[in-house]
Amino acid sequence: MVLMGAIGLFLGRYVKNINDYFVGDNSIPPLGGAISNFMSLFSTFVFVAYAGIAYEYGLVAILILWSSVPPALIAAKYFAHRWRRAGLITPMQFLETRYNAPVRQILSWGGIGFKILDSLVRLYSIGLFIAAATPLSLETAILVSGLIVVLYTVLGGIWAVVVTDAVQFVILIFSTLILLPLSIKAVGGLDNLTLTIPAHFTFFNGPKGTPLFLLGYYVMVLIKYNGNWAFIQRFYSVRDEAAGAKMGLITAAFFFVFPVVFLIPAIAARSYIPDLADKEMAYVSMCLRLLPEGIMGVMIAAMFAATMSALSATYNVVAGVLTEDIYKRLISPYALGRNLLLVARGSTFLIGILVTFGALYIGNFGGAFEANKLFTGLFAIPMSIPLLMGILYRRPKPWGALVTIVAGIIIGLILNQDKSISWEAATLLQIVICILIMVVSGWVPSKNPTYEARVNTFFKKLATPISAAEKPVVNEVFMRSLKYLFAIAMSTTAVLFLTMSLPSITKLSGQLSFGAGTICLIGAGILWVQAKSKDKKAISALPEPEAITYQQN
């Protein structure tokens, strides 16, 4: 946690305006953006909610989690270039041009509310994990976790989010890779596990493996993720369209590979701990049974890192909407510079505090997975469809967007109250109705020539590739500083793994942790050498100072 705060403090020195704070001067590299996308959309929620599904039904949990792959692929193909060419600071900024001011404000305010609800579930999940693995109560775990995330996020803006995401990614991946072989060994190998619980090794086991449920869930996630503000933010924060497409493809690869690593231990828990009372505690229970205390501490840090990433990304992008789309648009249109930056940091703090205290009440909604599913169905779908269709197609009208939002939420409320209608049927029906409203609005001709001209100009901009002059000039000094920062962070991570491995070095868990630390140390060394080499090249490229001659009088 000290490391994350230090990174935020260091990068905060480079934040001079809201463009730096929310867009990173359009200099986020594709790999860094992909890691940040991956970490922002994953959190401890995966190790609680999806782990519970894996424990109860098996591989279907991985199939459900693979629903994250299509959104990334579609974003790479159809959305990446559009988001970058739109030239945004926030995901809501284009809505006033594309539709009108009321649509922008309704989606801004409504989106803020939904993002807060979504963050409540994520913070509740990390609270469950920490409470199960430490002596802390659930309430204390939520409060401590939430306040730490708030304090670190306020400091450094999107660069702090992306850099800490990368460090947290390393901690998370190595920690979960330690548990994976330990879990397989504990149940006598994969062959023995498949013989013990054969039904768990089919992709369509249980009620969540039915074609209708999977169709509903995949379509919902496709809309939700592509309408996710943090997901969109990464695409308009890169250098150009090609970088955005590359980032989307790398993100899809991460979403495909790592769910297997994350959820196999929870499936193994069904054989190893068959009488587990709370299924959502499957992953943490395997950690407690198989990891020594020191390495368990690393795992807690990894789980916390995952949620920190998701929350910090949300806080940053929501603060952007509060600052640019609400404060600057409605309250202080001429605000500039440090004033806006102060508002941005204050907004980040306010959102974080609301989420921290609101997460204490999520248990009343029936668990993490059910709460997330409920909130998504009610709000994400009707608010994301106008956003996505608005940047893809020029025909849908402002009134169509407004009716879609209102009708979609009302339909969601009605269908979720009717117990005779399944969640998947209700979700698909809601999606179809929302899309139909948008399509019908496109058939109705507009009588406003000013609106038509504005929309045509906007879509002409989306069809025009970014020119060389519009692409940011890479700040080589900053990039070298980043390499040094990554090297120091990786060294610190290496020390963490190496130190925690020593008490159990004779066991497989300790040896795996030692190996993870060694790899991190080698990576840190490579980054440091690369940064040093670039420093030397930069110095050698400087012109020789002119000789100074002195004349004698």
From TrEMBL:
<dbReference type="GO" id="GO:0005886">
    <property type="term" value="C:plasma membrane"/>
</dbReference>
<dbReference type="InterPro" id="IPR001734">
    <property type="entry name" value="Na/solute_symporter"/>
</dbReference>
<feature type="transmembrane region" description="Helical">
    <location>
        <begin position="339"/>
        <end position="362"/>
    </location>
</feature>
<feature type="transmembrane region" description="Helical">
    <location>
        <begin position="210"/>
        <end position="227"/>
    </location>
</feature>
<feature type="transmembrane region" description="Helical">
    <location>
        <begin position="484"/>
        <end position="505"/>
    </location>
</feature>
<feature type="transmembrane region" description="Helical">
    <location>
        <begin position="142"/>
        <end position="162"/>
    </location>
</feature>
<feature type="transmembrane region" description="Helical">
    <location>
        <begin position="374"/>
        <end position="392"/>
    </location>
</feature>
<feature type="transmembrane region" description="Helical">
    <location>
        <begin position="399"/>
        <end position="415"/>
    </location>
</feature>
<feature type="transmembrane region" description="Helical">
    <location>
        <begin position="248"/>
        <end position="273"/>
    </location>
</feature>
<feature type="transmembrane region" description="Helical">
    <location>
        <begin position="511"/>
        <end position="529"/>
    </location>
</feature>
<dbReference type="InterPro" id="IPR038377">
    <property type="entry name" value="Na/Glc_symporter_sf"/>
</dbReference>
<feature type="transmembrane region" description="Helical">
    <location>
        <begin position="59"/>
        <end position="80"/>
    </location>
</feature>
<protein>
    <submittedName>
        <fullName>Sodium transporter</fullName>
    </submittedName>
</protein>
<feature type="transmembrane region" description="Helical">
    <location>
        <begin position="169"/>
        <end position="190"/>
    </location>
</feature>
<keyword id="KW-0812">Transmembrane</keyword>
<dbReference type="Pfam" id="PF00474">
    <property type="entry name" value="SSF"/>
</dbReference>
<dbReference type="InterPro" id="IPR050277">
    <property type="entry name" value="Sodium:Solute_Symporter"/>
</dbReference>
<feature type="transmembrane region" description="Helical">
    <location>
        <begin position="421"/>
        <end position="444"/>
    </location>
</feature>
<keyword id="KW-0472">Membrane</keyword>
<feature type="transmembrane region" description="Helical">
    <location>
        <begin position="34"/>
        <end position="53"/>
    </location>
</feature>
<keyword id="KW-1133">Transmembrane helix</keyword>
<dbReference type="GO" id="GO:0022857">
    <property type="term" value="F:transmembrane transporter activity"/>
</dbReference>
<keyword id="KW-0813">Transport</keyword>
<feature type="transmembrane region" description="Helical">
    <location>
        <begin position="295"/>
        <end position="318"/>
    </location>
</feature>
<comment type="similarity">
    <text>Belongs to the sodium:solute symporter (SSF) (TC 2.A.21) family.</text>
</comment>
